[in-house]
Amino acid sequence: MVAIKSHCVGNCYVVNNIVELKNLINEKQLQNQKNCVVVQTTFFENEFIQMQNELKKLCTNTTFFDTICTETKLRQHEATSIAQKCDLVLVLGSKNSSNTNKLLKICQKFTKAILIDSTLELKQYNFKNFKTVGLVTGASAPLNLFMEVKRFVENIEDEIFDFEKELERSFTKLKVGDCVKGIVTRVTQSELQLDIGFKYTGYISANEYSNTDVDLVNDVKCGQEIEAVVVKINDQDGSVQLSRKKFINKNAFEEIKTALYNSTTLCGHVFKIVDAGIMLLYKGIKVFIHNSQLGLAKTENANILLNKDVEFKIFSIDERRRSAKGSIRAAAAEKEAALKNKGWETLEVGQTYSGKVKSITSFGLFVNVCGIDGLVHISDISWQKINTPSDVYSVGDEIEVTVKSIDRENNRLALTCKKEEDDPWLIFNNKFKVGDIIDTKIISIRPFGAFAQIIPGVDGLIHISQLAKDYVKDISKSFKVGDSIKVKILEIDNENKKIKLSARALQENEPAD
């Protein structure tokens, strides 16, 4: 008001209440003068209205300027409302502040009220005698003061709450690099405001919140607890710049050091391919993996790992650069070893499992089952005769195999693709018997006779003497491969899996020799 008065030209008077106003009007004979009235920005709104009404009656030629701050009006209305509901009101702010003192007077009209400008003052009061305590803040009250007092009042009945400890903590000197916890009190698109429990207000900018793009308004809520690292302290305005991103990175690097010590496996995201290998991120920490540690096949390229999540092990760290080197191959080898150990315990002879063809040779297939490579010999690939295993399967095929035998001492596993119910000899015995007349197809010719296929996988011999009623001197002149021929089953040797057939028995109406 002293500053405003210095700008006035002519007569200028300052009054503090309606009584002083009436005395001034009578003393200076202001009734018939042209007057101008302004009001202090933090003045009592109700008292100004009363003074305004009185002036309108006594001085009809008066111009009014309502310069009470809108925020002040709101605070006064809220203070009135809060005071009417509470047994005690704590008014927070500077004791030299005009608006804070006016709020105190408003609250004291309705209930007991105390002006607090420091958390230290809370120690001298016994708040347990009050059922309801209200908080009102003046314009000069910093947010951290409000949050400290609020936390104290909310925990009055909590026996665990140690006010001395909390008070000591509130005056602890923060340092750059300290880790703090804070409660989000305000969210904007560009930054977060936090109560960190100290005599400071914390701020986290959008680019210090996360290692990835983030929408603060949608991803963060008021009341949410966030941990961050102190980046910059401004004692003048009581603000602290924080970085959640640095906190995440700091924790991540500690995890990486622990992983190196314990030889544990981590998972990271490959974001870049470089000349000597790849770069991946583990919670914001860069990890380099050399080509020799990728564990790829000779025909594979590192590009197949780009933008993928991979498991890896740490084998060295750089404290100064906060980076590390790792190995995908080592993680894969450990995983494979663990899978093998479990596989040897799981596999049982006679059980069927799903496996993947790892490699193909001339004598069979190597199939990975439960982490163990087992051999399917060419004779166990199919009940039918095959020329080479590659005619039936390719590397990478998923197939079902049955365990034939397990040699754990020598790490050998024998497998078969054959299913017992598909055994052609079993099918033949279930369908045919000695004396049956059947249609066959000649599949090969020998000097001593011809072999004819009865069903796929089961052949019988037609001896040269059983080919025709008359003696056949040269079989190849009378028969050729692919000819269909009707025969009679003369004999079945199940032990040696041999069958004797006769075409002559059908030409002669007599049993064949």
Could you explain how this protein is built, in words?
It contains 13 helices and 25 strands. By secondary structure, it is an alpha+beta fold. It folds into six domains: 67 residues; 99 residues, 4-hydroxy-3-methylbut-2-enyl diphosphate reductase, catalytic domain (Cobalt-precorrin-4 Transmethylase, domain 1), CATH 3.40.1010.20; 76 residues, OB fold (Dihydrolipoamide Acetyltransferase, E2P); 68 residues, Beta Barrel (OB fold (Dihydrolipoamide Acetyltransferase, E2P)), CATH 2.40.50.140; 76 residues, Nucleic acid-binding proteins (OB fold (Dihydrolipoamide Acetyltransferase, E2P)), CATH 2.40.50; 83 residues, Nucleic acid-binding proteins (OB fold (Dihydrolipoamide Acetyltransferase, E2P), Beta Barrel). Strands 6-7-8-10-9 form a five-stranded mixed beta barrel. A five-stranded mixed β-barrel has the order 11-12-13-15-14. It is rod-shaped and about 160 Å long. The model has no long low-confidence stretch (mean pLDDT 84).
Jot down its keywords:
single chain; 513 residues; alpha+beta; Cobalt-precorrin-4 Transmethylase, domain 1; OB fold (Dihydrolipoamide Acetyltransferase, E2P); 5-stranded mixed beta barrel; 25 strands; 26% helix
Q: How is this fold's topology laid out?
A:
Layout: H1 2-5, H2 18-28, E1 35-38, H3 45-58, E2 62-65, H4 70-83, E3 88-92, H5 98-108, E4 112-116, E5 133-137, H6 143-154, H7 163-170, E6 179-187, E7 191-195, E8 201-205, H8 216-219, E9 225-234, E10 239-243, H9 244-262, E11 265-274, E12 277-282, E13 285-290, E14 309-318, E15 323-327, H10 328-346, E16 352-361, E17 364-369, E18 372-377, E19 398-407, E20 412-416, H11 424-431, E21 437-446, E22 449-455, E23 458-463, H12 475-478, E24 484-493, E25 498-502, H13 504-507
Parallel strand pairs: 1-2, 3-4, 3-5, 8-10, 13-15, 18-20, 23-25
Antiparallel strand pairs: 6-7, 6-9, 7-8, 9-10, 11-12, 11-14, 12-13, 14-15, 16-17, 16-19, 17-18, 19-20, 21-22, 21-24, 22-23, 24-25
Helix pairs in contact: 2-3, 4-5
